Amino acid sequence: MSTGLETTGLTKSFGGVRAVDGATVAFRHGKVNALIGPNGSGKTTFFNCVTGMIKPDSGTASYHGRDITGRPPHRIARAGIGRSFQLCRIFPRMTALENLLVPVRSRTLLGRLVSARQRADLDRARELLTRVGIEHLADVQARDLSYGQQKLLELAGVLMADPETVLLDEPAGGVNPALIERIRELVRALNAEGRTFLIVEHNMDLVMSLSDHVVVFDRGRPIAAGTPDEVRNDPRVLEAYLGI
Ligand SMILES: Nc1ncnc2c1ncn2[C@@H]1O[C@H](COP(=O)(O)OP(=O)(O)OP(=O)(O)O)[C@@H](O)[C@H]1O
Description:
Residues 5-244 form the ABC transporter domain. By secondary structure, this protein is an alpha/beta fold. The chain is built from ten helices and ten strands. The strands form two sheets. It has a six-stranded mixed beta sheet, with helices on both faces. A four-stranded antiparallel beta sheet has the order 2-1-4-5, covered by helices on one side. α3 crosses α5 (115-132), α3 (96-105) packs parallel to α6 (147-160) and α5 (115-132) crosses α6 (147-160). The longest helix is centred in the middle third of the chain and has 18 residues, at 115-132. The mean pLDDT is 89.
């Protein structure tokens, strides 16, 4: 079993609240992993710690055995981890296509000057819009896309950097059933091509149908991990969710 992203004793407090409390987790590399748990159990904070958005107070995060604890987001991205956000991060007045090109272009000055590179980026952006099924919306301003379409655009944006591991924060939240189905198929296909996924999601149907490995958080730390069937039948998980 190959491990990519791992944490040991990861901890982050906000004031008196231990949002992440000594979390030791190993995700399965090459697989679809899900991180689930009740509201406020620390999933997003955990995500933010491993992607460099916030610095943990203590503990470590590593990727393929290399320490990434507290590294800035661009360094972690360069190591091969891409992420989406719970609330879409897009530029509303830019078109869908422009949204995919902005982060790439601004990455290096050289990149901006080399037209062959620009053409390659443009080709890739169009290819990814097609891949997520919104190529017909390439020239539409992002603010005029539906919320689900914006999420697909954000996924395309994450894929622009060609990350080996993709972290998705609530990809199905607020998205209509048809687009949830598309997201499910996309994750399956991208995973079959070798991409690892780590998904924070409340939609249990999506989690259970998509994941190889599910980690359940409660009060800032994992309380169970295993296949969907294993966690579904775990009394600790039922207790955390239902308080029984
Ligand atoms: N920036 C912050 N300042 C203060 N408290 C925070 C901050 N971010 C998170 N928290 C608190 O940390 C705890 C964990 O929150 P977090 O958002 O990580 O949980 P979550 O599992 O992602 O929740 P949800 O499923 O509702 O998105 C909560 O009690 C939350 O109120």
